[in-house]
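Problem: given the chain below (133 residues), write out its structure.
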Amino acid sequence: MKQTLGKKERLKSKTLIGQLYTQGKSVKAFPLRMVYIQTNHSSNFPVQAGFSVPKRNFKKAVDRNRLKRLLRETYRKDKFIVYTELAKPYVFMISFIGKEALPYSEIEIKMKKLLNSFVNDVKNNSLNESNKD
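Solution.
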Protein backbone atom coordinates (compact mmCIF):
# COMPACT_ATOMS: atom_id res chain seq x y z
CA MET A 1 0.00 0.00 0.00
CA LYS A 2 1.20 3.47 -0.88
CA GLN A 3 1.89 5.81 1.99
CA THR A 4 0.12 8.75 0.42
CA LEU A 5 -2.85 10.86 1.42
CA GLY A 6 -4.47 11.89 -1.84
CA LYS A 7 -7.39 14.15 -2.57
CA LYS A 8 -9.87 11.26 -2.73
CA GLU A 9 -8.89 10.11 0.77
CA ARG A 10 -9.64 13.48 2.37
CA LEU A 11 -13.03 14.36 3.73
CA LYS A 12 -14.40 17.42 1.91
CA SER A 13 -18.18 16.90 1.72
CA LYS A 14 -20.07 19.33 3.95
CA THR A 15 -23.07 16.99 4.10
CA LEU A 16 -20.90 14.10 5.29
CA ILE A 17 -19.20 16.32 7.86
CA GLY A 18 -22.60 17.48 9.17
CA GLN A 19 -23.85 13.89 9.30
CA LEU A 20 -20.65 12.89 11.07
CA TYR A 21 -21.17 15.34 13.93
CA THR A 22 -24.89 14.59 14.33
CA GLN A 23 -24.82 10.77 14.13
CA GLY A 24 -21.18 9.85 14.69
CA LYS A 25 -19.52 7.92 17.49
CA SER A 26 -16.25 9.04 19.02
CA VAL A 27 -13.00 7.55 20.25
CA LYS A 28 -10.32 9.44 22.21
CA ALA A 29 -6.62 9.14 22.81
CA PHE A 30 -5.88 12.47 24.44
CA PRO A 31 -5.14 14.97 22.90
CA LEU A 32 -6.73 13.40 19.81
CA ARG A 33 -10.42 12.70 19.26
CA MET A 34 -11.93 10.85 16.33
CA VAL A 35 -15.59 11.10 15.36
CA TYR A 36 -16.57 8.39 12.88
CA ILE A 37 -19.53 6.98 11.04
CA GLN A 38 -19.95 4.00 8.76
CA THR A 39 -21.36 5.27 5.47
CA ASN A 40 -20.83 5.06 1.75
CA HIS A 41 -18.82 7.87 0.21
CA SER A 42 -17.68 8.93 -3.25
CA SER A 43 -14.15 7.52 -2.91
CA ASN A 44 -12.80 4.06 -3.77
CA PHE A 45 -10.77 4.09 -0.56
CA PRO A 46 -12.13 2.41 2.60
CA VAL A 47 -11.78 5.63 4.61
CA GLN A 48 -12.13 9.35 4.07
CA ALA A 49 -10.48 11.41 6.80
CA GLY A 50 -10.61 15.05 7.84
CA PHE A 51 -8.47 16.90 10.34
CA SER A 52 -9.27 19.86 12.55
CA VAL A 53 -7.71 22.02 15.23
CA PRO A 54 -10.03 24.39 17.12
CA LYS A 55 -9.51 28.12 16.90
CA ARG A 56 -10.57 28.39 20.56
CA ASN A 57 -7.38 26.60 21.69
CA PHE A 58 -4.94 27.90 19.06
CA LYS A 59 -5.60 31.51 18.12
CA LYS A 60 -2.91 31.83 15.45
CA ALA A 61 -3.58 30.23 12.08
CA VAL A 62 0.10 29.30 11.84
CA ASP A 63 -0.21 27.10 14.92
CA ARG A 64 -3.44 25.47 13.74
CA ASN A 65 -2.05 24.77 10.29
CA ARG A 66 1.14 23.26 11.69
CA LEU A 67 -0.82 20.91 13.95
CA LYS A 68 -3.11 19.89 11.08
CA ARG A 69 -0.05 19.19 8.97
CA LEU A 70 1.39 17.00 11.74
CA LEU A 71 -1.94 15.17 12.12
CA ARG A 72 -2.12 14.47 8.38
CA GLU A 73 1.47 13.25 8.30
CA THR A 74 1.10 10.87 11.24
CA TYR A 75 -2.18 9.53 9.81
CA ARG A 76 -0.58 9.07 6.40
CA LYS A 77 2.19 6.94 7.88
CA ASP A 78 -0.10 4.87 10.13
CA LYS A 79 -3.25 4.49 8.00
CA PHE A 80 -2.38 0.86 7.22
CA ILE A 81 -3.64 0.04 10.74
CA VAL A 82 -7.14 1.03 9.64
CA TYR A 83 -6.99 -0.06 5.99
CA THR A 84 -6.07 -3.67 6.77
CA GLU A 85 -8.91 -4.15 9.27
CA LEU A 86 -11.96 -2.49 7.71
CA ALA A 87 -14.47 -4.21 5.43
CA LYS A 88 -16.98 -1.35 5.17
CA PRO A 89 -16.36 2.27 4.16
CA TYR A 90 -15.97 4.81 6.97
CA VAL A 91 -15.73 8.56 7.26
CA PHE A 92 -13.98 10.20 10.18
CA MET A 93 -12.70 13.49 11.50
CA ILE A 94 -9.65 13.65 13.74
CA SER A 95 -9.53 16.67 16.03
CA PHE A 96 -6.73 17.94 18.24
CA ILE A 97 -8.45 18.75 21.54
CA GLY A 98 -5.39 19.58 23.66
CA LYS A 99 -4.52 23.08 24.83
CA GLU A 100 -0.80 22.92 24.01
CA ALA A 101 1.02 21.84 20.85
CA LEU A 102 2.96 18.59 21.06
CA PRO A 103 6.07 17.48 19.18
CA TYR A 104 5.74 15.14 16.21
CA SER A 105 6.95 12.06 18.13
CA GLU A 106 4.21 12.35 20.76
CA ILE A 107 1.48 13.01 18.17
CA GLU A 108 2.62 9.91 16.27
CA ILE A 109 2.31 7.72 19.38
CA LYS A 110 -1.15 9.12 20.15
CA MET A 111 -2.26 8.65 16.52
CA LYS A 112 -1.30 4.96 16.60
CA LYS A 113 -3.18 4.55 19.87
CA LEU A 114 -6.23 6.35 18.44
CA LEU A 115 -6.30 4.29 15.24
CA ASN A 116 -5.95 1.03 17.18
CA SER A 117 -8.77 1.99 19.54
CA PHE A 118 -10.92 2.92 16.52
CA VAL A 119 -10.33 -0.51 14.95
CA ASN A 120 -11.14 -2.24 18.26
CA ASP A 121 -14.31 -0.17 18.66
CA VAL A 122 -15.46 -1.02 15.13
CA LYS A 123 -14.76 -4.72 15.68
CA ASN A 124 -16.65 -4.71 19.00
CA ASN A 125 -19.64 -2.95 17.43
CA SER A 126 -19.76 -5.38 14.51
CA LEU A 127 -19.56 -8.35 16.92
CA ASN A 128 -22.39 -6.90 19.03
CA GLU A 129 -24.56 -6.36 15.96
CA SER A 130 -23.96 -9.89 14.68
CA ASN A 131 -24.83 -11.33 18.12
CA LYS A 132 -28.16 -9.46 18.12
CA ASP A 133 -29.28 -11.18 14.90
